[in-house]
User: Which sequence fits this backbone?
């Protein structure tokens, strides 16, 4: 496990390069990541946290949640997605493709586990349509660290729509003026 954490940290440092985090602004959002709960045998919403990370050379939208049964912060126990502002159009295209496929799958009662596409983020992001049954189809976004695919995050249709809106607002810089810290000196 220590090799994994070391590799993850080195990968993170390599991809951020010499970029300096200038600010981190938490964003209020209705977005919820879903995770399968073994006790209830269903996908359930998790507390989800959204932040805008302003680096000296890029802007990232960070979406995260703790897994069920995990306490505290350990990198392997927290789901992360980092969306790059420069790639929002590609994310929107992939989400729209999911929404189209999800409608077709419901109409046809299909069960699928089908890759939609890939887009760059902080790490490459894989977009997949996953069917839990003939009427419930999730957008799954998985981070590809270069070694393994990690942090699969599940979004039912409404959450995929919420993510789409969040990304469009991120692209339009609608979160730039919400840093509450400037009011507390």
Assistant:
């Amino acid at each position: 496990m220590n090799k994994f954490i070391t590799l993850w940290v080195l990968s993170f440092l390599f991809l951020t390069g010499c970029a300096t985090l200038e600010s981190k602004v938490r964003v209020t959002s209705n977005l919820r990541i879903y995770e399968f709960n073994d006790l209830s045998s269903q996908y359930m919403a998790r507390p989800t946290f959204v932040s805008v990370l302003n680096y000296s050379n890029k802007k990232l939208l960070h979406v995260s949640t703790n897994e069920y049964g995990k306490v505290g912060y350990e990198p392997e126990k927290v789901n992360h997605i980092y969306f790059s502002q420069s790639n929002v159009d590609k994310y929107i295209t992939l989400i729209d493709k999911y929404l189209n496929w999800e409608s077709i799958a419901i109409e046809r009662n299909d069960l699928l586990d089908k890759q939609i596409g890939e887009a760059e983020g902080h790490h490459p992001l894989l977009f997949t349509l996953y069917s839990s049954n003939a009427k419930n189809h999730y957008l799954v976004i998985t981070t590809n660290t270069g070694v393994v695919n990690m942090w699969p995050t599940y979004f039912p249709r409404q959450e995929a729509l919420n993510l789409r809106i969040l990304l469009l607002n991120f692209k339009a810089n609608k979160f730039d003026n919400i840093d509450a810290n400037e009011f507390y000196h």
About this structure: The mean pLDDT is 83. The helical segments are 2-16, 88-108, 157-171. The chain has three helices and ten strands.
